[in-house]
């Protein structure tokens, strides 16, 4: 009997704490996300003459490279150059790039055959391209990103008008199934809670933001922070570029790119699990305690209510029901904001479990293998951990 009372009280207070935490989190998150403006809804300056150099690093991207490069060449922006760096590809990527360059002189293709010691392939390729760029602005974007024709003009206009040194744009992520769309929604919630991108603009906040799909930065700012050299062994180079900008006290901002820019992220659950191996542990600075802490917190706050509602009763059960309703409401709101189907929220419990699994699997695989395999190249853990920021 005493144990029954103990567990009843334990779950009551746990549910109360959970409810307070979830409601507070939802209020902060929704309030913050509302501060991130949709670029497609903002006015645009049509008289822009500041040259932009678009830099794309590609390794074995034959599946996506053609539509991505074509969308960049179709930008309604007169003064631009496009530098595509073929980083040791073994598929048709280089050939496709050469074909596209033959049709448009703005596209410069550079083929790399070797990777210098102490560099990740992508980071070296981006640095290589940036040192050969002549634009006042540099746009780093991934080789699978597709942009609408007005994207660059809108982004540069926003950055110039707001006197920013760095602008990150959060893309629309397209997935082939309802379950994977649910993964995107949950990932956005977790990413936003962890990085608080709406605070990146605040010079008094330590929050920062960077997005691999769209990192627009003044070339003088890029040179001032020594480019990608401080990030040469960071697989999370996109967000770390944002951190580097913030550490050097340059002005940073973020916009929502839904309706303007999209990325076809992963085609299967297996691709998600394998694809995130390279950076999930890196975001935690390769810290086992930090990785364990965040995975346990996510399971307790977001997954436990779904199970506890079935074996609790009374006010405790009501608390857990309210938590579930609040979380589903959050998912509904986030899904509408990132253009994924709202029905995807039905998979939230499974996706939260999957994310925790990916966190633990990535940590264990990285430790057991002594490093990460990324794009057919192995990078030792000791080298990765030494590149702190």
Number of domains: 2
Please estimate the helix content.
40-55%
Radius of gyration: 22 Å
Distance between the termini: 54 Å
* Overall 3D form: globular
Specify the CATH architecture of the largest domain: Alpha-Beta Complex
Give a brief rundown of this model.
By secondary structure, the protein is α/β, with parallel strands linked by helices. Helix content is 50%, strand content 15%.
What are its keywords?
Spore Coat Polysaccharide Biosynthesis Protein SpsA, Chain A, 14 helices, 389 residues, alpha/beta, 12 strands, globular, 3-stranded mixed sheet, 2 domains, single chain, 7-stranded mixed sheet
Describe the overall structure.
It is a single chain. The chain folds into 2 domains: 2-34 and 279-386, no CATH class; 39-171 and 211-267, Spore Coat Polysaccharide Biosynthesis Protein SpsA, Chain A (Alpha-Beta Complex), CATH 3.90.550.10. The chain has helices at 2-34, 65-73, 93-103, 121-130, 151-161, 178-195, 219-224, 237-247, 269-275, 280-283, 288-308, 314-337, 348-369, 381-386; strands at residues 52-58, 80-87, 107-112, 137-142, 146-147, 166-170, 172-174, 215-218, 252-256, 261-264, 371-374, 377-380. It has 389 residues and is α/β, with parallel strands linked by helices. The mean pLDDT is 93. It contains 14 helices and 12 strands. Helix 6 (178-195) packs across helix 13 and helix 11 (288-308) packs across helix 12. A 7-stranded mixed beta sheet has the order 3-2-1-4-8-6-9, with helices on both faces.
């Amino acid at each position: 009997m005493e144990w029954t009372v103990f567990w009843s009280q334990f779950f009551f207070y746990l549910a109360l704490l959970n409810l307070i935490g979830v409601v507070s989190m939802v209020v902060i998150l929704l309030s913050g996300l509302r501060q991130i403006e949709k670029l497609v809804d903002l006015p645009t300056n049509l008289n822009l003459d500041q040259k932009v150099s678009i830099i794309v690093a590609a390794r074995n991207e034959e599946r996506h490279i053609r539509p991505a490069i074509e969308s960049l060449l179709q930008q309604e922006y007169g003064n631009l150059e496009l530098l595509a760096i073929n980083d040791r590809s073994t598929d048709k990527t280089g050939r496709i790039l050469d074909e596209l360059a033959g049709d448009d002189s703005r596209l410069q293709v550079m083929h790399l055959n070797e990777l210098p010691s102490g560099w990740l392939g992508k980071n070296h390729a981006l640095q290589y391209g940036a040192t050969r760029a002549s634009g006042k602005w540099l746009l780093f974007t991934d080789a699978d990103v597709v942009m609408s024709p007005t994207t660059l003009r809108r982004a540069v206009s926003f950055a110039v008008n707001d006197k920013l040194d760095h602008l990150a744009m959060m893309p629309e992520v397209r997935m082939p199934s309802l379950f994977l769309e649910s993964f995107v929604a949950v990932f956005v919630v977790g990413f936003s809670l962890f990085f608080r991108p709406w605070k990146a603009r605040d010079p008094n906040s330590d929050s920062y933001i960077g997005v691999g799909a769209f990192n627009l930065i003044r070339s003088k700012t890029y040179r001032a922070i020594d480019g990608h050299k401080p990030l040469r062994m960071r697989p999370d180079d996109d967000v770390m570029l944002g951190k580097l900008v913030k550490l050097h006290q340059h002005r940073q901002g973020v916009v929502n790119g839904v309706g303007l820019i999209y990325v076809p992220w992963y085609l299967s659950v297996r691709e998600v699990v394998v694809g995130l191996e390279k950076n999930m542990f890196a975001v935690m600075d390769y810290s086992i305690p930090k990785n364990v802490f965040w995975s346990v917190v996510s399971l307790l706050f977001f997954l436990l209510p779904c199970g506890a509602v079935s074996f609790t009763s009374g006010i405790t059960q009501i608390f857990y029901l309210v938590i579930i309703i609040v979380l589903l409401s959050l998912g509904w709101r986030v899904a509408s904001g990132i253009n994924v189907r709202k029905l995807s929220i039905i998979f939230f419990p499974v996706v939260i479990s999957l994310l925790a699994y990916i966190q633990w699997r990535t940590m264990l695989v990285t430790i057991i293998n002594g490093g990460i395999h990324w794009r057919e190249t192995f990078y030792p853990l000791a080298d990765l951990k030494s590149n702190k920021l």
